[in-house]
Amino acid sequence: MSDISGLKFPDNLLYTPTHEWARVEGDVAVVGITEYATHHLTDIVYLEAPIVGENAVQFKELEPEGAVESVKASTPIYSPFSGEILEINDDVVNSPEKLNADCYGNWIYKMKISNKAEVGKLLKVGPYKQHAEKETH
Q1: Cα torsion 14, 20, 25, 26: sign
Q2: Could you tell me the pTM of the whole model?
Q3: Helix or strand or coil: residue 127?
Q4: What span, in angstroms and rounded, lies between the C-alpha atoms of 114 and 106?
């Protein structure tokens, strides 16, 4: 594995140990994958997003919601919170390589958080960087 010194870790986001980021706006979370994830996946070629609407599933915290596939690997996208998917970023679904170009500017989905107590379980930038650093060694 490589080191993480050149990677970005915005301090206004919360992070999961499975490399998703969340920006909490009231009871809604905007969710994407981190630069650490895109760096290790390399060229992303496919994004399986969760479903919105009448066929949508109520997700539980840290349950897989979709998947990201690259030329190198496939990995699930885990839900940072329990809740319901409100919106999918179709632009990123149709052009998943945009995640490699700007993973923090290209969110994947928005969800309504059903249990606000779960927000406190996510990692702030310092602990997340430490977690990512440990995974590289």
Answers
A1: negative
A2: 0.89
A3: helix
A4: 24
